[in-house]
Design brief:
Number of strands: 12
Distance between the termini: 36 Å
Number of helices: 33
Structural class: alpha+beta
Helix content: 40-55%
Radius of gyration: 32 Å
Length: 844
């Protein structure tokens, strides 16, 4: 396909082959790319069948353990343990892990290095783990003594080590995700499952990390710690979800001798047959244990025991999209977990004096670990709090509070009514309101998180016991539904109708080439009384900062602008019209407002466009080279792209952010979130191997409901892409748009740029400020170099302006513009920006 041909739809990217041929070809390509991972999966399947581990048999002479490896002299066991699953479930998980994570690692490392990483990290991890166990056993620790007769056979140990080795060669996006999420989950399994498999996997991960750094030495890598705001939300959400896994891990592993499983001991239903008759007269600690067993038996208490896991998942869901309510939920849930854990692990409640003397320091270390884990997540949430600012309307927050508090009061009242009506259901056949009130929280809190019940309010049977066991389930169900509704009731969603109205005005022909930016998150909308004119704006520091031209019909410009100015005055805001075109300037001049140029938009008129002549030589060369190298193009939207392309675009974008080491810019500069709008066009350059060479996104502009123009927004190129790839993409896009009937291609505005050959006007305070700002930001963001790049396409230039009424507000306007472009920058990021500007930030 040549660049001048119409770009295909997403469905026609791959050759038109029969389905069977496509599947065969894909399978063959997978085998060629991942031979070791496929062979490993087959070995795990074969050893599981051959040694009978699928049916409960276990070859201890081939498994690693203090007995088999040290006492029996099985020097081969650290290696053979990596090839044998200890159960059917373990085999299924290992095979899936090998064919996914293992295959990814093999593609990054290469087959030979992947094999070395698998066995080197796995064998050494087993030996080190057994060494640690032996040392702790010599010290007499309870955990090591309980694990001294444990045998381990687990292929996932080596796979984890191999995967962590590969992260050193992975793009920044996947490097961060795999490491952060991987280590969080591995640590949780060590603390809450406590088996030797989990310990070996964690050690293998650390060894893999070190090996990866060795393999990647000398390779140029981006900053690992720099990530986009969207990615920070994703990682924090993943950590919150992973640290809520504790109850689930204990339940699925069945290990109650793990370091932190004591706090969850009440999560499992006891099979107690009842309570001693003597407990009605003499309520001893044994009676309390028997009563607790009755109250926590059954499905209801089991579901309540999973509340920490539920809250973690619920909070993570909202954190991923920046919800402030989710941030508060995560903070409260982790604080509650820390407090509940401290109460549950109170030595006086769990252990008698003799037991405390025996475990002593070891127990206190476990208590500190158990409490430190949720506290560490709280610190993380506080540090990243700026990333979670999507707030719900006050009305929605009020409805949430009324729903949750009302549900708790109603359910509690119903329980009290049942209990007081049926005293025969209780121990001693009596119960009082005061006793019920004293234990009012117990039915809704996981059993291990509160002290034992008292003898005054213990339902033993009948409706009272049923109500006690299910009241918590009902409350948390209501809470979950109310929280989901709160997430959906964001302020942005409240304006969904207004946004739809704004888009309809854009489609009617208003807003110009930059008008679509008004649909981006963060903007509010003002409409004329007749609904036929609108202005997109955001209020920062008392300044109503508009974006692009007012959106209205021809001839209604003055009325629309005057109406918005009056609206701002009524609200006590200072109006500042930013980034509007020349045609609106006379209106502001008639107001007597101050105005100035804030950039230049580069525009190509598509009818009659021919890339001929000397002026186009610098564009034709990369265009021809791309065609010779077999680079094709694809026009699509985000939701129509194949999954492999969306994942690659996200990875490349995150790598770009990591390399910048600087805060992301916003306002008139879009990113990944804006790329996903269904009206936004995406134009890709794809190499002959199917990889993405470059990505661009295009914002539409309409005339009478028909798209007549496209404005470039998002530009990213992959590592190792062809020199001149962006010239190839933009030239190809121009030819494609021309064939589709578009009239205008805009390469967008160059902030703070000056038209070539144009003499600057008389300096003003604001012009000096913006000139200084442009000069200072140039080393960091390259506005001038970007403007020179766009000039290769022989555009016509349209000056974009800013206008404001009150010069006394200049300081506020300057701060508002700065915050609009850098909305979430932290002090650390501002420091990185200053270091870049002053040349002390290293190589950028």
């Amino acid at each position: 396909m040549t660049a001048s041909e119409p770009a295909p739809s997403a469905a026609t990217v791959t050759p038109d082959l029969p389905p069977a041929a496509k599947k065969t070809g894909a399978f063959a390509a997978y085998l060629r790319a991942n031979p070791f991972s496929v062979v490993l999966a087959l070995i795990v399947l074969g050893t599981g069948l051959g040694f009978g581990t699928f049916w409960g048999e276990f070859p201890t002479e081939l498994a690693a353990g203090s007995q088999s490896t040290w006492e029996w002299g099985g020097w081969w066991t650290p290696a053979t343990a990596l090839l044998i699953p200890d159960s059917l479930i373990a085999a299924v998980l290992a095979i899936l892990l090998a064919l996914t994570a293992g295959a990814y690692a093999e593609r990054r490392l290469g087959t030979v290095r992947a094999m070395i990483a698998f066995f080197a990290t796995g064998v050494v991890a087993v030996l080190l783990g057994l060494g640690v166990q032996a040392v702790m056993n010599a010290w007499g620790t309870i955990w090591a003594l309980m694990k001294s007769d444990e045998f381990v056979a687990d292929p996932s140990i080596g796979i984890i080590g191999m995967l962590m080795s590969a992260t050193a060669l992975a793009p920044a996006l996947w490097q961060r995700r795999i490491r952060v999420i991987g280590f969080t989950v591995l640590v949780m399994f060590v603390l809450y499952a406590g088996d030797m498999d989990s310990v070996f996997r964690l050690i293998a991960a650390v060894l893999g990390l070190l090996l990866g750094l060795l393999l990647a030495r000398g390779a140029a890598r981006g900053s690992w710690h720099r990530s986009s705001y969207r990615e920070v939300r994703t990682l924090v959400a993943a950590i919150v979800a992973a640290t809520g896994l504790g109850p689930f891990i204990v339940l699925i592993s069945g290990n109650y001798d793990a370091p932190l499983s004591l706090v969850l001991s009440g999560f499992v239903a006891d099979t107690s047959n009842g309570i001693d008759a003597s407990c009605g007269e003499n309520f001893t600690s044994a009676c309390a244990n028997q009563a607790s067993a009755i109250l926590t038996a059954g499905a209801g208490p089991l579901l309540v025991s999973l509340v920490p896991f539920l809250l973690a998942l619920l909070a993570a869901w909202g954190l991923r999209t920046g919800r402030r309510a989710a941030w508060i939920l995560a903070l409260v849930a982790k604080a509650g977990t820390a407090i509940g854990t401290a109460i549950a692990l109170s030595p006086g409640d769990l252990l008698d004096a003799k037991a405390r003397a025996e475990v002593g320091v070891e127990f206190m270390v476990l208590v500190l670990l158990a409490v430190a884990l949720p506290l560490a997540v709280i610190v993380l949430l506080l540090v990243t709090r700026r990333r979670f600012r999507v707030a719900a309307p006050r009305r929605a927050a009020g409805q949430f509070a009324v729903t949750v508090i009302g549900a708790w009061l109603v359910l509690t009242a119903a329980y009290f009514a049942i209990a007081l009506a049926r005293p025969q259901d209780y121990l001693g056949e009596h119960v009082s309101f005061g006793a019920l009130f004293a234990d009012v929280l117990l039915p809704s809190v996981p059993a291990g998180f509160l002290p034992n019940v008292t003898e005054d309010a213990i339902p033993m049977d009948g409706p009272s016991l049923l109500a006690y066991q299910w009241i918590g389930v009902a409350f948390w169900l209501v809470f979950t539904v109310a929280m989901i509704r709160l997430y959906r009731a964001t302020r942005l969603q409240r304006a969904a109708t207004e946004e739809a109205q704004f888009r309809s005005l854009l489609q009617a022909g208003g807003g110009g080439t930059l008008g679509f930016m008004g649909t981006w998150p963060g903007n509010a909308y003002w409409f004329t009384p007749d609904g036929r004119g609108a202005v997109a704006y955001r209020v920062i520091k008392g300044v109503a900062l508009t974006m692009s031209d007012p959106v209205c019909a021809e001839g209604a410009e003055r009325v629309t602008i005057e109406g918005f100015v009056a609206h701002c005055e009524a609200q006590g805001w200072s109006a500042c019209f930013y980034s509007f075109h020349e045609k609106y300037l006379p209106i502001f001049q008639s107001f007597g407002w101050q105005h100035m140029s804030v950039g230049e938009e580069t525009v190509l008129d598509l009818p009659g466009l021919e890339l001929a002549g000397k002026a186009w030589q610098k564009v034709r060369q990369p265009l021809n080279r791309g065609q010779r190298e077999g680079i094709t193009t694809l026009w699509s939207t985000w939701h129509d792209l194949p999954a492999q392309y969306t994942a690659e675009i996200e990875a490349v974008s995150e790598e770009w952010v990591a390399n910048k080491k600087l805060p992301e810019m916003g306002f008139t500069l879009g990113g990944m979130d804006e790329l996903k709008d269904p009206d936004v066009g995406i134009f890709l350059a794809i190499n002959k191997d199917g990889g993405i060479e470059a990505t661009t996104s295009w914002l539409p502009s309409w005339t009478d409901g028909r798209i007549t123009g496209w404005t470039i927004d998002f530009m990213r190129r992959g590592d190792g892409s062809m020199p001149g790839i962006m010239e190839f993409v933009i030239a190809s896009a121009a030819l494609h748009m021309k064939e589709q009937g578009a009239e205008v291609m805009s390469l967008s505005g160059a902030p703070l740029a000056t038209k070539p050959g144009e003499e600057p006007g008389d300096p003003t305070v604001m012009s000096r400020l913006l000139e200084w700002l442009g000069r200072m930001l140039e080393p960091a963001y390259g506005f001038t170099s970007l403007f020179r790049f766009k000039s290769k396409f022989n555009p016509r230039y349209e000056t974009i302006h800013m206008a404001y009424a009150d010069p006394a507000q200049l300081a506020n306007i300057g701060l508002a513009i700065g915050e609009a472009y850098l909305p979430h920058a932290t002090p650390k990021e501002y420091l990185a920006l200053v270091q870049t500007i002053t040349g002390r930030g290293g190589d950028h």
